[in-house]
Design goal:
The chain is an alpha/beta fold. The chain folds into 3 domains: 4-73, Winged helix-like DNA-binding domain superfamily/Winged helix DNA-binding domain (Arc Repressor Mutant, subunit A); 85-156 and 273-297, 3-Layer(aba) Sandwich (D-Maltodextrin-Binding Protein, domain 2); 165-268, Periplasmic binding protein-like II (D-Maltodextrin-Binding Protein, domain 2, 3-Layer(aba) Sandwich), CATH 3.40.190. It contains 12 helices and 12 strands. It has helices at residues 4-16, 19-25, 30-44, 60-86, 100-105, 107-117, 130-138, 187-191, 207-215, 227-235, 249-254, 282-291; strands at residues 49-52, 55-58, 93-98, 122-127, 144-147, 159-172, 196-198, 220-223, 241-244, 258-261, 267-274, 296-297. The strands form 3 sheets. Strands 3, 4, 5, 6, 9, 10, 11 and 12 form an 8-stranded mixed β-sheet that branches. Strand 7 (196-198), helix 9 and strand 8 form a beta-alpha-beta unit.
């Protein structure tokens, strides 16, 4: 039976192409490494390397193991993480990945609740694109991913446990020329006359959303996930930005920005994703409970 140490050994020899250099890296003698390789070859009844004067050349069997190695290592990391979390929540660290909008409209409240409850574990947070969050979730680099994922579009390996949505709006400075077109039938056409600063639109937002932007020829001249920067630009120019209405609530209330609606209603949505087995952890369950104060449970 092949174990993970065998895979690592083959990987090192394949990458270095020299059994002597591989033995140094693996902290063993060259004869010991040679015996290990020979025993493994006898076990699987296949040659892993061709021994030549120029070095060790991997066979098709070794190449197959190398192609499968990342998946094997990822599965092992995932298993180790699941066992670690199942062991309890005292002194555990829960790794959370969020999208840029979630970072600003949901995460601050969740972290304040975490501080108030004084829970016996740590939280580590990263902010990434939806695509990166899914890769990190798959590799068990994060335990929860909260971003613009549609619950009906995710893979079966994840559970969408919480969701939230709200209307997307356009934010401009009060003196912006677009304010004169509010309620006018040509308002949609006027949108294309002005530049936008906003995050990159993820494919997870759905075809309908992207089609609406294309219909009115809306695109971003400045692409930035930093909404503080976007607000500064919009307050001091004729640029516009867009996002969930709560993202601009304080600026709307203070009169720093004015709210415009899209010609067609567009919704922003997000989901909290996790692997089913990770949700068995008491600490992860506590974090999900914190988020549930600001998101709604998703039922099948």
């Amino acid at each position: 039976m092949i174990d993970i140490s065998d895979v690592h050994m083959i990987k090192v020899v394949t990458e270095l192409g020299s059994i002597n250099r591989a033995a140094d890296v693996l902290c063993m003698s060259q004869p010991t490494l040679s015996k290990k390789i020979s025993r493994l070859e006898d076990k699987i009844n296949l040659k892993l390397f061709s021994r030549q004067n120029s070095g060790m050349t991997p066979t098709s069997a070794a190449n197959l193991l190398m192609r499968k190695a990342p998946t094997l290592e990822s599965c092992l990391q995932s298993l180790e993480r699941e066992l670690e979390l199942m062991a309890g929540m005292v002194n555990a660290t829960i790794n959370i990945g969020v999208g840029p909008i979630v970072e600003q409209i949901i995460l601050p409240n969740v972290l304040l609740d975490f501080v108030e409850k004084d829970l016996p574990f740590k939280i580590s947070v990263v902010t990434e694109s939806p695509e990166t969050l899914l890769k990190q979730l798959e590799g068990s680099e994060i335990d929860l991913a909260i971003g613009p994922f549609k619950s009906d579009k995710i893979g079966e390996q994840y559970n969408a446990v919480l969701g939230a949505e709200e209307p997307l709006v356009i934010a401009v400075r009060p003196e912006h020329p677009l304010m004169e077109w509010v309620g006018h039938r040509d308002f949609g056409r006027q949108l294309s006359e002005y530049k936008f600063v906003s995050p990159n639109v993820p494919q997870q937002m759905g075809v309908g959303f992207l089609d609406t932007l294309a219909e009115f020829d809306i695109s971003s001249t400045i692409v930035s996930d930093n909404y503080s920067l976007a607000k500064t630009i919009v307050c001091n120019s004729n640029y516009a930005t867009a996002g969930p209405v709560s993202l601009f609530r304080s600026e709307f209330e203070r009169g720093q920005l004015s709210k415009l609606t899209f010609p067609k209603p567009i919704m922003w949505h997000c989901s909290c994703l996790a692997k089913p087995e990770i949700l068995l952890s008491p600490a992860v369950a506590e974090v999900v409970q914190l988020f549930s104060q600001y998101m709604s449970p998703i039922t099948e």
